[in-house]
Design brief:
The structure holds two protein chains of two kinds. Chain A contains nine helices and two strands, in the order αααββαααααα. Chain A is mostly helical. Chain A has one domain. In chain A, β1 and β2 form a beta hairpin. In chain A, α2 packs parallel to α4 and α6 crosses α8. Chain A is flat and about 70 Å long. The termini of chain A are far apart. Chain B is mostly helical. Chain B has seven helices and two strands, in the order αββαααααα. In chain B, α3 runs antiparallel to α5 and α5 packs antiparallel against α6. A two-stranded antiparallel ribbon of chain B has the order 1-2. Classes of the chains: A mainly alpha, B mainly alpha. At the A-B interface, α3, α4, α5, α6 and α7 of A face α1, α3 and α7 of B. Chain A: InterPro entries: ABC/ECF_trnsptr_transmembrane (IPR003339), ECF_transporter_component (IPR051611), EcfT (IPR024919). Chain A: It is a multi-pass membrane protein. Chain A: Its main location: membrane. Chain A: This is Energy-coupling factor transporter transmembrane protein EcfT.
């Protein structure tokens, strides 16, 4: 039985943050995104930076994993920053070259944008690096439970997420097999322009989807044979429980939020 | 409502494939026009989910955006994926009314472009960047993926996997 499923992001560990209830981590990550947008000056970003450093240190996650999460977005940040630098108008002209003008306000805006995105991605990375996908799904279901009253199918959604996560490695293996089988018959997925590469996808996608629907049929039948009827009346094998660690985490986050508000209104 | 386990599992696997496609093909099929990026074929699971009903289409969109956060800890990408809830829902509605797949693709394209353009603004993108690059890029991406979906739909129909939900011949 597969205990924990990873998508190449989760790092097994025993740190304080790893042991927190997933609901705590999910809520704090969501609130972190909101609080991050409340920081609007240098002092605010310093507080965010220190809070992030504390979390990364406590989680014992190596920095290179945080960096790995940032790398794909780096070029995007750079080019958007360049756009901001050249097209933001302001009052203090710093440099001019023909029609291109650089204002101090543009530079500041670009810097803040880069900082904000970096902190955003680092914070979100920390959630997925310290929590297994199954734990995340469990936490999401519990957090969605209150919305059951207005018709949100919390259990079914969580079950679907669990099934999806369980099948990601299986379907990736399947994709790899299909790809190799088609290559053995002469298919070329790498060369040619974008249009040719898109066309070459069809002999890959068709068998992948057909086998997925067959797999879905088999799994649904097996689940029903084991008397699955939906969320009502079910118990759970793993029970989530809040502990003192969660209280400590929330208190620390509250302090962080108060400091951010402080920088916003007193500087 | 009566729970349909088979549909639930089908939706789960479509979610999984929606997450896998950028992972597996991100290196060969990625289009990158900053600040816009997209992986060809990533909308195919969304189009297929439209044939499974409005609730399934919405949940596949919602689930794939949550799944994206696991696979790519980038809130901007997850927020854009979240817009597939509305696009999938509208598409499923049109399918229920027996619109041809071509019309479904064309009708949902502008909604898709506008929604993704709007959602990236809170993350610091300027109005012009969002509307012109992300919006138009998304519409083109949407239509290209619609074209890629057609042979997949035909194959699935022949396999009788989703025949009950396809009430009209594919245009």
């Amino acid at each position: 039985m597969i205990k924990d499923i990873t998508i190449g992001q989760y790092i097994i560990g025993e740190s304080f943050i790893h042991k927190l209830d997933p609901r705590t981590k999910i809520l704090i990550s969501l609130l972190f995104i909101i609080v991050l947008f409340l920081a609007t000056n240098v002092q605010g970003y310093v507080v965010v930076f220190l809070f992030l450093m504390l979390c990364i240190y406590v989680s014992k996650v190596p920095f290179r994993y945080i960096y790995k999460g940032l790398k794909p977005i780096f070029i995007l940040m750079l080019i958007t920053a360049v756009f901001n630098i050249f097209f933001t108008k302001g009052e203090t002209l710093v440099y001019q070259l023909g029609f291109l003008k650089i204002y101090k306000e543009g530079l500041v805006l670009a810097a803040f944008m880069i900082i904000r995105l970096t902190f955003l991605i680092a914070g979100t990375s920390l959630l997925t690096l310290t929590t297994s996908p199954i734990e995340l799904t469990d936490g999401i279901e519990r957090l969605l439970n209150p919305f059951k009253k207005i018709g949100v199918p919390a259990h079914e959604l969580a079950m679907m997420m669990t099934i999806a996560l369980r099948f990601i490695p299986t379907l990736m293996d399947e994709t790899d097999k299909i790809m190799k089988a088609q290559m053995a018959r002469g298919a070329d997925f790498e060369s040619g322009n974008l249009i040719n590469r898109a066309k070459s996808l069809v002999p890959l996608l068709v068998p992948l989807f057909i086998s997925s629907f067959r797999r879905a049929e088999d799994l649904a039948m097996a689940m029903e044979a084991r008397c699955y009827r939906g969320g009502d009346g079910r118990t759970r094998m793993k029970v989530l429980k809040m502990t003192k660690k969660d209280t400590i985490a929330f208190v620390n986050f509250a302090i962080f939020t108060i400091l951010i508000f402080g920088t916003r209104f007193y500087f | 409502m009566k729970l349909d386990v088979k549909k639930m599992v089908q939706a789960s696997l479509l979610m999984a494939i929606a997450i896998i496609i950028p992972l597996v093909f991100g290196s060969t099929l990625r289009v990158y026009i900053p600040p816009f990026s997209a992986t060809l074929a990533s909308h195919v699971p969304m189009f297929l989910s439209m044939f499974l009903g409005t609730s399934v289409a919405s949940i596949v969109g919602l689930g794939s955006s949550i799944g994206f956060l696991f696979a790519f800890p980038d809130p901007v990408v997850a927020a854009r994926a979240f817009m597939h809830v509305a696009v999938g829902f509208l598409g499923a509605k049109l399918v229920e009314k027996n619109y041809s797949f071509r019309k479904v693709v064309l009708f949902t394209a502008p909604l898709h472009g506008v929604l993704e353009a709007l959602i990236v603004m809170p993350f610091g993108f300027s109005f012009k960047d969002a509307l012109i690059i992300v919006g138009v890029g998304t519409i083109i991406h949407h239509i290209v993926d619609g074209i890629i979906t057609i042979p997949v739909l035909k194959a699935l129909k022949l396999e009788k996997k989703v025949e009950n939900n396809i009430k009209k011949e594919i245009a």
